[in-house]
Specification:
- The chain contains 5 helices and 6 strands.
- It is an alpha+beta fold.
- Strand 2 and strand 3 form a beta hairpin.
- The chain is globular.
- About 35% of the residues are buried.
């Protein structure tokens, strides 16, 4: 199965579960947990999949699947903090080459971080996906993940 098809399948599964389980009556944490579960099972190269939520002037770990993650990250620090500060997706082919990378787990080799916006267009968090393979993420991942997190714009 190619990546585009895998992302379409994941998106449809997330939408179906969300709709069948009450959707807009649930909070963001439920949608985050559902997204993590679907993505981590759909893509074998996803080593760590999780959300960091905006809490004041920093990001705090939210639902995730994988080894223990950093508990909080300042805006502008590491890949997650950079994506949050710039409010745009960041793809890092080799995390050891990213200035200021925060090494929560030494097995992480590449990373993609996608900002998550709420219904009013406000930044509510980031989706962080790590791989234990170098150069694991590309524009197909960007498009697929950005489409999935866009669900938060209508979930509020």
């Amino acid at each position: 199965m190619n990546k585009s098809t895998a992302y379409e399948d994941a998106y449809q599964a997330i939408v179906a579960i969300w709709r069948d389980e009450g959707g807009e009556t649930l909070d963001d944490i439920a949608l985050m947990a559902t997204i993590n579960s679907i993505l981590s099972h759909q893509f074998s190269h996803f080593f760590w999949t999780g959300f960091y939520r905006v809490c004041g002037d920093r990001l705090a770990v939210g639902p995730y699947i994988g080894t223990v993650g950093c508990l909080q990250i300042e805006f502008g620090r590491g890949v997650c903090g950079t994506a949050a500060q710039q409010q745009e997706t960041v793809i890092v082919p080799d995390v050891n080459q990213f200035p200021g990378h925060i090494a929560c787990d030494p097995n992480s080799k590449s990373e993609i971080v996608v900002p998550v916006f709420g219904p009013e267009g406000e930044l509510i968090g980031v989706l962080d996906v790590d791989s234990d393979q170098l150069d694991a993420f590309d524009d197909d991942d960007r498009a697929g993940l950005e489409r999935i997190v866009a669900l938060f714009r209508s979930a509020g």
